[in-house]
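Continuing the batch. This is chain 6 of the set; chains 1 through 5 are on the previous pages. Same settings as before, nothing changed between runs. Recording input and output for traceability.
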Amino acid sequence: MTISVVVADDQPLVRAGIVMLLRAQSDIEVLAEASDGCGAVDLARSRLPDVVLMDVRMPGMDGITATRLLTEDPPASSVDHLTKVLMLTTFDDDEAVYGALRAGANGFLLKHAAPQDLIAAVRKVVAGEAWIDPAVAPKVIEALAKLPHPGHGTYGLVDRLTPREQEVLVLMAHGLSNREITDRLVISEATVKTHVARVVMKTGSRDRTQAVVLAYQSGLVAAGSTPRRGR
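Output for chain 6:
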C-alpha cells in the first residue's frame, strides 16, 4: 500500500526537506505541496490524500483552521475516505497543541523530532491511530486531567463531534467492536479507527471506555436503547 501525502508549510526550505525525506520512502508518495492553509484544504479536497502534514502557523488560513475544515464529515461520495492530519510545528505551546487536537488532528509532531519519528507518525495516523510527540505528551495528559468528569458538562463535549463521529460513538456505546462498526456503516476499519481516535481526542476522554461513559451520561445514548441501522 502506498501512502499519499500533501505537505503544507509556508517555509520553502522546510517544506523541501520534508518532501525529500518522505520521497525517500518506498511506501510514501507526495502528491502536492501547499504554502498556506487554504491551499492545503483545496489540495486535500481535490487530490484526496491519505494524510496532510500541516504546519500550525501559516499566513492567511492557519493550520488549525484548515484542519477543522478537513476533519468535518466528508461528502457522501467520499464517505470512506478520511484525510488524516498530522500537525507539524516548531512550537509546543498550549494553544497550538490543544487547538490542533480540538480541531480533530490525528497527531502532533514537533519539527525538531527525529526523521524516523516523522515517518513513523505518518504511517501510524494513516493506519487510524493517533500520534502525540513525546515532548508535548505531558501537556496533553495534564489537559485531559483538568477536563470535567463524565456527567459534568458532558453535553458540550459530545457536541464537538461531527454527526458521523457521534454515530460511531453511539455504536461504541452499544458495545460494537471496530469490525462490527465497519460492517454496520460499510466503511473501512482504518476509517473507523480514525473516527474512534477523533472521538477520544475531541471529548478529552482517557480512552474508549470513558468515551462510552460520556455517551450515556451526556444523553447521546439512552440506557436500553438499540442502535439504528447505518446508512
